[in-house]
Amino acid sequence: MSGLCRTGAGENVAMSRALYLLCVLAFLGAADTLYYHEWRAQLPCMGKNARSELLLHAFRDFVYSILFITLPWIAWQGAWAITLAALLLTEIVLTLWDFVVEDWVRKPLGGLYPGERVMHAVMGILYGAMLAFLGPSLWNWWAAPTGLAVSPVLVISAARWALSIMGIAVLLSGVRDLSAAYELPGSAWPWIRR
Question: Quick one: pLDDT at residue 193?
Fold first, then answer.
């Protein structure tokens, strides 16, 4: 990692807004997972019948884990900005693919829940807004020397720590979804495998 990163006031404001939007997105994503994926659909107990959706969720969780843990603290500079852009694009592709797959997987459950569709739309809008605010930083990082620079975003400390904790939680959720996709022992808990 390189030294502390210096940024302009405009970039700081945009990055702060991006981080607050990412924080809201993290909490909505947690609500979506806990209520719709776990409580209502009980996807982990569907195992191989929901494998394609569980795998998409796992891979997307791994991407979000990286974003949640690094963006509050680290500036992805130079060639690292390309890696970050690739992760952001990967998340979009995985989400669009998930929109198709979840309709197919959820047919036996009567389809996707209407509230879940609304939640996904809201989350998509927030993700787009977050990207719009992240854009100036990404552009400036691309022009900087390559490195991962310590650069805590100017937000309340609780937001940085909440995202870091959510990053660990979403990583664990991804591991659980990956395990459930392959029906590993205990991965359907607390549900009973169908």
Answer: 85
